[in-house]
Write a structure and sequence with these properties.
Layout: E1 4-10, H1 20-25, E2 32-39, H2 40-43, H3 51-68, E3 75-79, H4 81-91, E4 93-100, H5 105-120, E5 124-128, H6 150-163, H7 212-215, H8 228-233, H9 238-248, H10 250-268, H11 290-298, H12 304-316, H13 321-334, H14 339-349, H15 355-366, H16 381-388, H17 393-398, H18 413-427
Parallel strand pairs: 1-2, 1-4, 2-3, 4-5
Helix pairs in contact: 4-5, 6-10, 9-10, 10-15, 12-13, 13-15, 14-15
Amino acid sequence: MKQKVTFFWFRRDLRLEDNVGLFHALQSDFPVIPLFIFDEDILENLPKNDARVSFIYDSLQKVNEQLKAIGSSVLIKKGKTAEVWKSLLAAFDIQKVIFNKDYEPYAIRRDLEITQLLQQNSVESLSYKDHVIFEEKEITKSDGLPYTIYTPYKNKWLEKYHLLGQAAEYDTKPLFTRFAKNDFKFPELAEIGFERSSIKVLPHNLTQIANYKETRDFPALDSTSYLSPHLRFGTVSIRKLVNWANKKNQTFLSELIWREFFIQILFSFPNVVNHNFKPAYDGIQWRNNENDFKRWCSGTTGYPIVDAGMRQLNETGYMHNRVRMVVASFLCKHLLINWQWGEAYFAEKLLDFELASNVGNWQWAAGTGCDAAPYFRVFNPEIQQKKFDEKGTYIRKWIPEFDLGYNEPMIDHAFARDRAIATYKAGIVK
């Protein structure tokens, strides 16, 4: 007879510690098999040397090493998610499946499909909040509708957080004896169809943000935490991080709340993935010049702060947040290229790509999103460079030829600003 088991399904929560769904799975009546599925519906659109796949693979290896020390292991599968689950249902006597929630449109559809499949096979499935402090409709206006402006959302978020004391953390370690004893083969990266990327996810470091409020806008200081990819794939707990930030760094806490704000926007308004949050902006006549876009992508616009940012992104998968705002504004307003082009390029390149934040921030820069920068706010790249990289330290790091006589800007700022404002005015539906 097959052993009755509970499955815990890892997704964007690649850690054993303070993992809500895993905590509940380990309290079930059956031994727990941890599972990760390399989803072909996601992977088929990625390059074979995608750095994020390498990071997921390495993170799973770390989890597997922890499990091997107690006589267990992670079951790794690759395929269409529904087909993988059908094969698992045939191979194991599954009593329960537990996973943490994901709020992106594709994930919601996938999880509904799998939940229905499990139900048809008389398998109980349970999902838990782990990726955020407050989810779905936990932070709403008094009429129950979602917030679409950040500051009142943040105020309500903080009010609720402080009312609860702090976010409860889940001690999973005493429950590790509940993992099923097994020794599943851990596949090589090539068996999943990928090769190792030369681009690396850096370790996160909270000590670098001691003076975050004062230093966060200066890219040459490198005073960021490098946490974002770790948050994206759940190698760190958002509860531990928020509780730390609440005690140590309110400015950094505000950035974490921005993340939850955009996740709530995506959950409540899933059409923002492909449409402007503000339909009044649908009439903007974008130029969408492909040669201009290629120059932006390659970091050859002639504006050093823009080019340095794009080269940093292309070489490392990272870009400093202040520089992200400048390059996004440049694409949408100087070049009049639809924000969706930039969003797609960032989605391909960013190590910390997260759909909610990427769409939210791109629409913020374009002026078409919720609580967005007004359309007439057009960043001047030269002023941004003087304010935040006055000595050119950041620029020289990514543009070694800078001092040899740099390229002329591909477009005059004053001309581009006037053209952008006129184009927006003409396109906005009153």
